[in-house]
Amino acid sequence: MYKKITPNPLTLKSLIDYSTTHFSGNTAVSFVEGNATMKYAELGAKINEMAGLLYSFGLQPGDNVALYCQNMPNWVVAYFAVVARGLVIVPILPDFTRAEVENVLLHSESKVLFVSDRLKSKTDGLELPDLKAKILVDDFSIIQGEITAAKPENLNDIEVKEEDIAAIIYTSGTTGRSKGVVLTQKNITFVAMQSYTVFPINEHDIFLSFLPLSHTYENSIGMLYPLMYGASIYYLEKPPTAASLIPAMGKIKPTMMLSVPLIMEKLYKSQIQAKFAKSKFTRMIYKTSLFRVLIHRIAGKKLYQTFGGRLKFFGIGGAKLDSRVERFLKEARFPYAIGYGLTETAPLLAGAAPHQTKLQSTGYAMEGVELKINEPDKKGVGEIWAKGPNVMVGYYKNPEATEEVLTADGWFRTGDFGKFDSKKRLFIRGRMKNTIVGASGENIYPEDIESVINNTQYVVESLVVEEDGYLVAKVILDLEAIEKNLSHLKSVFEEKKEKYLEWKQHFTKELNAKLNRASQINRVDIMDEPFEKTASQKIKRFLYNKANQKKK
Which single residue of 196, 318, 398, 442 could bond 536 by disulfide (Cβ 3.0 to 4.6 Å)? Predict the structure, then answer.
């Protein structure tokens, strides 16, 4: 039975208090192997226990508490002990460097730090004048600090209002400038509630969570949404790799999962595309749409079983999905869904359930959210603006940056180019900051060119930048595949420089044949190391864009 739940008021306190009461006997969170399993009633009791501990350090409602930890059941306990009991959470991405962690803790003036044993070394020895205590998330033992106050007599009596600050989330953006996004209780709870309008769930659903909970995407849709409906969430004890994910999916047979495009793109290239490229015959029949669809259907059935055989919803967000990969998913009848949003919107703005997907579209505006294209050009392309209960308050201690993105009448400037089709489906063109202005004044979207490059055989991923007025493609090649399938190409890399340059020129020529004149590449650089990425697996462009570095 499916029925929409509406927390009243729209607070995380209302959300978790309802769930721990109404779904008390259901499994709330657990490791895949069955360790650290908590029923909803146990989760509620643990939350109150931890909230009491926090207040015993002398904290007051509205104080900031940092959480630096990989995914685990106790992450959920720590989170709600903060946000559901009048405090403010500062989640820190696990892949942040020691310097980035220090900056977040200092800038946020966090009073308590929850940290896991795996990540603790990055916080050891930091001088943090505001920090009163440090708590190990693994077992909630106190590793720094002393109890100085009595906990409130009844933690449930602590008032939490919709407009109260719930979280300050420091982004790991592609521009290199980390800002603290301030989200209210209503901002976050609204997205969890409205996710139901995209795809309904109930207490029988099973989530496998492996994206960082510190990121709003997994936090709102992969944690808060299932917990609101009494579903069960399972976490991996090991880092998410094929070796850990496949057995996990086979064991718990999830009905819902979230992912980023890169994961599915890697799977497609290694498992699907590689098989079709083995012989001239398979390559030939694959070019025929009838045979391609048939092959995709067969491959899709196998893929579905690999995911446990019960998947209803496989959400993909965080970046643009490769067009060839999406075509495969659609023709394979794999239950993928697409979404669009930003940390500043908690995050969901638009989405399409599996039965609604349209190639390269991010779907329709979420119910209760307004989207518009500001100052569209002749093709209908312009900056996407958003308005709704999920739009952030602003950036923490940064009124100038806040003023740049929030209009006086409440519209949020996303910084993304997009357009609507006749059915009001949204199509993303690219980030405004990434857009390159061509010699004739035309807008060139690097993401579109990268999609073409990434569809080229033996290319793992790419980045297109402007250098001295020229378009340069930085490319990561699958050298293992080249060595395995094209021994003659391997020798090219080992021979004289002239041969190598000859190969690059051929590659560039073949690539440009697929691109319009304005988007053609002037030079290809083969990269030796993988690109550095954000938590949502987007390339940190600022590290590779010389033009931007010169401007700075």
Answer: 318
